[in-house]
Design brief:
Layout (H helix, E strand, L loop, with lengths): L2 H33 L17 E2 L2 E2 L20 H4 L1 H17 L4 H13 L4 H16 L6 H16 L18 E6 L6 H14 L4 E5 L5 H13 L3 E4 L6 H14 L4 E5 L10 H14 L3 E10 L4 H13 L4 E5 L9 H9 L3 E5 L7 E3 L2 H9 L6
Parallel strand pairs: 3-6, 3-7, 4-5, 4-6, 7-8, 8-9
Antiparallel strand pairs: 1-2, 9-10
Helix pairs in contact: 3-4, 4-5, 5-6, 6-13, 7-8, 9-10, 11-12
Bound molecules: guanosine-5'-triphosphate (GTP).
Protein name: Signal recognition particle receptor FtsY
GO cellular component, one term: plasma membrane
GO biological process, one term: SRP-dependent cotranslational protein targeting to membrane
């Protein structure tokens, strides 16, 4: 064989062997890489893509998002929760009465004290307890628990039969707005109450205008303006120290021209001039009735924390103007919820709405059953 041919055959053998070794090494390396891959992120990792070699392509996995834990539902406070201070006036007395096991002289002292502390007034306290004493004397009631149940029922009965509707006259023509006047001394929560009513009435589908007839304090008008913005209602205000009646008159005229359903009118609780407040309120009412509107409610706003003082105010206001209902505010912070009984029994004015907090939904229709039951429900207070 020619030496050249020998070299050529040798070179081919070496080449074939070399390629075989390289391919075998590559295979080996390929399988080694796979085992050295970093571990896959756990499903809960926030990363949204996972790279995993599969041949030469990168596979995108859908993001693994763990569901957010359900937020604990916020339980709205019940009337019972809001009345914790008022209930405290009763719970101590009820505890001692039930603890004694029999109806004694102390039972009557405890009950009278609890009722007076809650500010129902002496007349109402006597009116509630005297008939019960007769029933105990006649052995119709013998157990302390039955006595408390009878008192609870009598308190509910005393508040029954009142017309608690806030009146809106649907029969008035467009251009003849209903007018609700809000009266009461400063700081009782008039402006806040108007804001809450505005929101509720707007949600009920009525169109509204708020008239800032309290011209004593510029801040009061500004506060009302903010409520008007929040509930997207029309708003009329006057100059500071201006005539409250004219602001309300202008408001009613504007509402009439725009065919607005309802005007909520804030009034002064104090005046710049020496004019008597009550005379001013009479004038407000006269002027409000002069134009296109009809006053269908005059709501007296009373701060429940003032107890019997509130009663004195109610008497004065009702003598000056035809008060058709009471709004009792701040019942949530008051131990003197008994004022409800004093106002209704002594003045015959129904409590129509109660304020139980500062938020827009914290104004609710007054429900005697719910109210009295909340006062007596001392079960879990300890
Ligand atoms: N806790 C509680 N606070 C209330 C309630 N109603 C009103 N308030 C608060 O009482 C304060 C006085 O309320 P306003 O609405 O400004 O009282 P006002 O009668 O208009 O007083 P002036 O603006 O001074 O005429 C504010 O801080 C209100 O948030 C209620 O039902 N519960």
């Amino acid at each position: 064989m020619d030496i050249q041919w020998l070299f050529l055959i040798l070179a081919i053998v070496v080449l074939v062997f070399g390629v075989g070794v390289v391919v075998a090494n590559r295979r080996k390396m390929g399988s080694g890489q796979r085992t050295e891959l970093p571990p896959r992120p756990a499903p809960s990792a926030p990363s949204t893509t996972t790279e995993e070699p599969e041949g030469d392509t990168l596979v995108e996995e859908p993001p693994v998002v763990e569901p957010e834990p359900e937020p604990e539902p916020v339980k709205p406070l019940s009337l019972r929760d809001r009345l914790s201070k008022a209930r405290a006036s009763f719970s101590g007395a009820f505890g001692s009465i039930l603890g004694r096991g029999a109806i004694t002289d102390e039972t009557w002292d405890d009950l009278e004290e609890a009722l007076l502390r809650a500010d129902v007034g002496l007349g109402v306290a006597d009116g509630l307890l005297e008939p019960l004493k007769e029933r105990v004397k006649a052995k119709e009631i013998t157990e302390p628990s039955d006595l408390l149940a009878a008192l609870q029922a009598d308190m509910i009965a005393r508040l029954a039969d009142a017309d608690r509707e806030v009146h809106f006259d649907e029969s008035l023509e467009p251009g003849q707005p209903n007018v609700w006047l809000f009266v009461g001394v400063n700081g009782v929560g008039k402006t806040t109450t108007i804001g809450k009513v505005a929101r509720q009435q707007t949600e009920a589908g009525r169109t509204l205008l708020l008239a800032a007839g309290d011209t004593f304090r510029a801040a009061a008008a500004e506060q009302l303006g903010t409520w008007a913005e929040r509930s997207n209602t029309e708003f009329v205000r006057g100059t500071e120290g201006g005539d409250p009646s004219s602001v309300i008159f202008d408001g009613i005229e504007r509402a009439a021209s725009k065919q607005i359903d309802l005007v909520l009118a804030d009034t002064a609780g104090r005046l710049h001039t020496k004019t008597n407040l009550m005379e001013e309120l009479k004038k407000v009412r006269r002027v409000a009735e002069k134009g296109a509107g009809t006053v269908t409610e005059t709501l007296l706003v009373i701060d429940a924390t003032t107890g019997q003082n509130g009663l004195a105010q109610a008497r004065q206001f009702s003598e000056a103007t035809n008060v058709t209902g009471v709004v009792l505010t701040k019942l949530d912070g008051s131990a003197k919820g008994g004022i409800v009984f004093a106002v209704e029994t002594e003045l015959g004015i129904p409590v129509k709405l109660v304020g139980v907090g500062e938020q827009v939904n914290d104004l609710i229709p007054f429900d005697p059953d719910e109210f009295v039951n909340a006062l007596f429900d001392t079960g879990t207070d300890g």
